[in-house]
Specification:
The chain is α/β, with parallel strands linked by helices. It has 17 helices and 14 strands.
Amino acid sequence: MRSRTLGGGFEVGGKPYDVTLFGATGYTGRQAARYLSEHAPPGLRWAVAGRSGARLELVEAEAHASGVVVADSAEPASIEAMVAGTRVLATTVGPFAHHGGPVVDACVRHGVDYVDITGETAWVRGLVDRHHAAAALAGTRIVPFCGFDSVPSDLGALLVASFIRERWGQDTRRVSASFALRGGYGGGTLATVLHSAETGELAVGRDVLLLNPPEHRGDAERARSADLDAVRRDPVRRVWLGPFPMARINTRVVRRSNALLDAIGRGYGPEFTYEEATEYRSRLAAEAARLGLRLFERALAVERMRALLRRFGPAPGEGPPAAAREQGAMRLRLVGEAASGRQVLATLRARGNPGGQVTVMTLCQAALALATQRDALPRAPAGGVLTPATALGLPLLDRLEAAGLQVEIGPVVRA
C-alpha cells in the first residue's frame, strides 16, 4: 500500500496511527493522554490503547484521541494488531518485566519505534541481549528509560559533554550530577520496586556496567564507575551530596550512551565517569537519608516487609497525594570536568511531580520526536536498544525546553 500524507505532513505508510499510547487508562497513562491532547500537532493521528474498551472510550472522548485500540499483554494477537497499526508505540504499562516483553518483541518484528518509562535495568539488559542486533540492522529505535528515569540525566550528561567538546575542543573526564526534588510516588512505582525485589532484579541492577556492551565492561571502567555510597561537600554547588535512590538506574543508562557513542567515534572521552547524588543543605540530613536508604533496601529483602509496603502503600493505578503533585518540582545540576580540568555547570529545572508530570512530558515528547521529526534525530546509531541520548539526542532536549524545561549551562567561574 502506498503511503499517504496527513494534514500535518506525517507519513503514515498505510498505518492508522502515528502514535499509540498503551496503558492510557492507568494513572500515568491518563495524564499522558491529556498531554498528547494538548501537544500533538495538527494532523497527527494517535490512539489510546489498553485492556478495557469502555474505559478507553472515556479517555478518547476526554483527550480527543483519533481512536481506541483494545490490547492486553497477556493476549499476543491483540498486541500484534496494536503494534502493526502504528509507527510509534509509547507505553506506561509496568512492571515492564511482567508486561513489557511481548510489546517490545512485536515492535522489533514490525519495525515500530518504541518508548517507555521503565526504570528496570535488568529487564532492559534482557532486551539488549535479545533485540539490539536485529533492531540495529532494521533501523528500529527501541528506547526504554524515557521518563524521569532517565531522560534528564542522560540528556544532561550529553549536554555537558557536547558543550565541552564544542566550546573547548576537549574530552569530558567526569560528570557529577545532583538532584533536588519535591514530589511523591505512585502505586505503579511501588509495584515495580516490589516486583524487582521479589524476582532478584534489584540485585542484578547493582552491576555498575550492566547495560554496557562487552567492550565497555573492563576492569578499569568498572573501577571508576562505583556508585556513590558516602556523604561529601561539593564546592561548586555548595551543598552536601549523598546517595540518590535512582542512581542505580540513571548511571547505567548514561554509561550505555557513552559506550554506544564511542562505537561511532562520538564518545564523551576515554576516561569518562558519571555519578549521581542527592543534594542536602546539611551533612546531618545527608547522613540520615543515607541511613534511611540502606534500611529501605534491607526491608525490600524481607518478604514480610514487602507485604506491609504493598498493604499500606499506594495501589497500582493510584498516584501520589494531591499536595505532592501540585508542589512537585525537579532541579538537576551537573558539574562537568574537561580533560584540562576546566569545569562547566548545567542546570535543568522542571515544575511538577518528577514521577508524574515530568515523566509524562518526557515520554510524550520522545514519542512525538520519533513521529514528527525522525529525520532531525541523530543518524547514528540508526537503531537498536538505545538510550534517550543516543536515539533522540539534543533535539529532544530542544523539544523539552520549548515545552517548559528550563536549561542553563556555562563555565564555572571561581571567585
